[in-house]
Amino acid sequence: xxxxxxxxxxxxxxxxxxxxxxxxxxxxxxxxxxxxxxxxxxxxxxxxxxxxxxxxxxxxxxxxxxxxxxxxxxxxxxxxxxxxxxxxxxxxxxxxxxxxxxxxxxxxxxxxxxxxxxxxxxxxxxxxxxxxxxxxxxxxxxxxxxxxxxxxxxxxxxxxxxxxxxxxxxxxxxxxxxxxxxxxxxxxxxxxxxxxxxxxxxxxxxxxxxxxxxxxxxxxxxxxxxxxxxxxxxxxxxxxxxxxxxxxxx
Length: 250
Known about the structure:
Mean pLDDT: 89
Number of strands: 13
CATH architecture: Beta Barrel
CATH class: Mainly Beta
Low-confidence stretches: 1-21
């Protein structure tokens, strides 16, 4: 009789966990990204190459998924893109109404961060294939500083905007291996503005049970920021490189 009661109690607990996960799934993810920076920035029609440094960047996200068919799932992610560079001017450069002349040696700090607010639907969701489709509102914040070590002039442009982007994500499971192949991206191309942020890689199921799933990730990520006169800031800068991270699912 005791064994029957124990088995019934265990079954009740397990069924409760399964139901809770079916009703609501919480995902927490993060990554460290070693990227290379390349490109130009400045004001419209007056941009130069500052030979931007390679940096390590961080990003993280939280996502909530549910089984309700008409209500989208929600994902919020944050990414930082901070770098710096130097340039020796061979032509005049104007930034924030400050004119730098030929021969000036410039230092630049390029600090950009953005928060993505994504609403998406799961078109497929099983152990072999998941495919998500939705829209993202990218809240961009940029602060770019330039100073001359030759003339002691300084200038600073801050810019902010919210850009709508297309969101897609896919995950393919490799049966009996614990490995998955995944890809994810946000895209926008309107006029002279072009933004994209995509990544692809592999993940490994380190922990997989009813209470918690933990996946380790390794992949390659690319971000392009081609902005045309955003609060007087124009840029055509690329960031790309290898990342490593983890995803926890409750």
